[in-house]
Amino acid sequence: MILRHSSLEGLLSTLSTGARVYVPAKADGVTKFVLYSSSVRPDFSITNTTMPPKDLLFPQTQHMYRYGTDAEGVPYVEPVHDADDVIVFGMRPCDVRSIECMDDVFLTKGFVDVSYQAKRERLLMVAMACTAPAPTCFCNSMGLCPTAAPLADILLRPAGATDASGDTAYLVEAQSEKGQAALAQWESYKATDTSDADFEPVSAAVSCSLKVSMVGVKDKLEAMFDHPIWEQLSKKCITCGTCTFVCPTCHCFDISQENRLSEGTRFRCWDSCMFTAYTEMAGGHNPRASKSARVRQRFMHKLCFFEQRYGKTLCVGCGRCVEKCPVALDITCLIDQIGAADVAY
Q1: CA–CA separation, 302 vs 298, rounded Å?
Q2: Which of 7, 163, 201, 342 is close enough to 189 for a disulfide, judged by CB 3.0 to 4.6 Å?
Q3: Can you give the pTM of this predicted structure?
């Protein structure tokens, strides 16, 4: 199926009548996935939005359940679930991979997070292949391909040819049963004056300019828990938490409640392993009180612990932390340092 760029606005308007549609755009000075409306102008030229789409499944603040007593004094507990269908249109392959990592955390190993599951089941992911990765992107090195997103329900690949008007086009491919069913709504917007054979999709050979080698990194890290590298690295860190909030796979959270008379709400909100209070216990003990311990935890989790448990790294190579860290504490430089470290494994 061929979809012309000029048809996107009409398609998004149609899709938004039956679901909440989120598109990459700039809002309040920040690029993120914004709820589509006639006043929103999607920008599909954004390689990676500053804020990833993870908050659509794992909101910054999420009500989990309400509790209290009714008029007759009988206690009750009511789960809070979002029942809306959601379409994320224009996700990049690294963000699609990040959802796969979040699925591992919230839906596998014998545990199902019902709040996450309710949202995940109603999510349609429409991915867009990358033709020009940003200078801070390194997804190739993390085992991804900029032009492929196997977990996406629908994949759009920019085509190399245009018509006489200069209108660009996308080759559209359904990659799941959910995606195949969704394409029925797209029929009236597909280009009828051309065929797939008339267009050449973007090459699968698109590559990131920033590269690292992950060979042996996990195995080396298993022997580097007490290595001096963590103390050296932490001197630079200001523990602001920026890296964790722009990361598409960080999922630390805190749980609290708000009470009003006989009613209350339990909710969770994003937290960060970089904050001192995150691991502080009720009795005052903190197993990661030092900054070096918290820095070590972040990178060990991304590059070692998660792979031990789920078989993949928790870093997807999107480069957001590389771009936004105020002190340039670069994970790619750390990977290079680990690779060069003289550690037996």
Answers
A1: 6
A2: 7
A3: 0.93
